[in-house]
Amino acid sequence: MIFNIEYETMPREALESIQLRRLQATLERAYATVPFYRERLQAAGITPANIKTLEDLQAIPFTTKQDLRDNYPFGMFAVPMTNVVRIHASSGTTGQPTVVGYTARDIGTWAELMARSLSAGGATREDIIHNAYGYGLFTGGLGVHYGAEKLGASIIPVSGGNTKRQVIIMKDFGPTILTATPSYALHLAEVAIEMGVSFQNLKFKYGIFGAEPWSETMRREIENKLHLSAVDIYGLSEVIGPGVAIECHEAKKGLHIFEDHFIPEIIDPSTGKVLPYGETGELVFTSLTKEAFPVIRYRTRDISCLNPEPCICGRTHVRMQRVSGRTDDMLIIRGVNVFPSQIESVLMNVDEVEPHYQLLVDRKDNLDILTVRVEVGERLFSDEVKKLQSLEAKIEKDIKEYLGVSAKVKLVEPKTIARSEGKAVRVIDNRKI
Amino acid sequence: MRLEQISVFLENKSGRIADVTAVLAQAGINIRALSLADTSDFGILRLIVDNTPKAEAALKKNQLTVGKTDVVAVEVEDQPGGLHRIMDILCKADINVEYMYACINPDTRDKAVMIFRFEELEAAARLLEKNGIGIIQGDRINTLLK
Prior knowledge:
The complex is a heterodimer.
Chain A: H1 5-8, H2 12-33, H3 35-43, H4 65-70, E1 84-90, E2 98-103, H5 104-120, E3 128-131, H6 139-151, E4 154-156, H7 163-173, E5 177-180, H8 182-194, E6 206-210, H9 216-226, E7 229-236, E8 241-247, E9 255-257, E10 262-267, E11 281-287, E12 298-304, E13 306-307, E14 319-320, E15 325-326, E16 331-333, E17 336-338, H10 340-348, E18 357-364, E19 367-375, H11 385-403, E20 407-412, E21 419-420, E22 423-424, E23 427-429
Helix pairs in contact in A: 2-3, 5-6, 7-8, 8-9, 10-11
Chain B: E1 3-11, H1 16-26, E2 31-38, E3 42-49, H2 52-61, E4 66-77, H3 82-92, E5 97-103, E6 111-118, H4 121-130, E7 135-136, H5 138-143
Antiparallel strand pairs in B: 1-3, 1-4, 2-3, 4-6, 4-7, 5-6
């Protein structure tokens, strides 16, 4: 079902004229209220009045995650705090999170986009949605929640964790839609089997999965094990949260980007040049309707390509290919963004630790396992087992507190971490996604 | 009173102890006593050797992490209750033993030797001596009984 027929199936010409009008308004507001954007545009010799066509957007400088960090926490907000009704945050490379704000109207926009997304994934107001995305600073849980209420479906705000209880709820409440990270969905399936609960006997019809990279192989595995039809959802808190783009369950061939609210571009990550449809590069977004936290040409670091071909579902919005990678070294562990440099700064805060470490990512029983291998130098070493073990426990606790992700710390002998051309190999990702 | 102990960090994988003994054998180092503490991930090999500086250099050259700690070598009567007498003295004085292990005795056959690791080495050694317990000088363990 298409939630908003008027906008989602709008002819391209009409859509583009709305985009231009909204782009001009966004630029004018950002220029007037956010010093960062005003200075950037002035440095580039541009005023909002110079933007007369959608192509003119290409002259505007990019915004990066570093820019957001430099303006931590509220420097990029375009409205006074009295108008901000919600704050979310995601982890950043130095442990400093990226903070985003929403006005009441932004929350309404986000709910609309999530209602559209849930509909595209197969949900209707008759459905019961089991929402296993985490609730909190992370946008996943609350994003789905507001969308489900907007759609009029019944939502179970179960959040992440306590998997056995989740299986009992699935059995007793009979939800028909599952929203979760794809790896957690598979983990749910395994725990259900251990508990003697078969997904065949549950009522699930559709699943909407995202917040971490996955593949067609994983989709088949999820569909077979969970007996539902699975689609991919895309979003990032900087742009709005989940609900930037969604696959329709009819085609399952790329994710429709809600172009009445965002302008997507694909650029060559090294030159910044905009690439034509069909070519692979870095995804860049400009928000068109956001009030509290407008983003202008925000570089996502996600690698994808755009497909403008008409879709069998009837939506006219361009489709992005499933994200195939990153232009930086960010890892997504159980839905949490982790940069090796964050782990490094945790380690550097422990006096005895030398900067020789390696991150090992595995997937066991469909859950991501992060192991941090730390070389034991002389300063760290002790002849007492308990001292080394308490050091391991301290680092594990610090990582959990700082990054919100559980890691296992493993002490290793010096020089055991492979170094290629003098540079240590920081990340070994063994996940077969 | 002090005796120097070498400790070596080892990952818990097969062949690692053999790697260490090979280094020591090649350097002509004689092991007087050793103990191995292990966890599921790693182990700590503690050694008393006849030439500590040489052993340390050889191990470090082979990129092993080496630590040095002072421990105490204590004479124990080789008869029932011999060790208990020492433990009793320490217990009553509320002195905590971090770890301990047995060692060969360079001098006599009627006394065993235990290596003790204390948090407060001086206080523990003085207490034992005051109670008539023999403490073996470090250099005797290290160098005698070739």
